[in-house]
UniProtKB/TrEMBL annotation:
The gene is hemP. InterPro entries: Hemin_uptake_protein_HemP. This is Hemin uptake protein HemP. It comes from the Bacteria.
């Protein structure tokens, strides 16, 4: 099941563990409306989303 299928089939917020998103890395690329965004885990263990 894709994230899009989960969102479309549910009114509840989708919960994804960050470890599942980053797969052991520190950066994930998220695509939305033809644009790429970077979700980055900082040295202080915070998340930053940038375009």
């Amino acid at each position: 099941m894709t994230a899009q299928e989960v969102v479309q089939g549910s009114a509840a917020p989708v919960r994804w563990p960050i470890a599942e998103i980053l797969k052991g890395g520190r950066v994930a690329i998220i695509e939305h409306a033809g644009e790429e965004y970077r979700l980055r885990l900082t040295a202080n263990d915070k998340l930053i989303l940038t375009k």
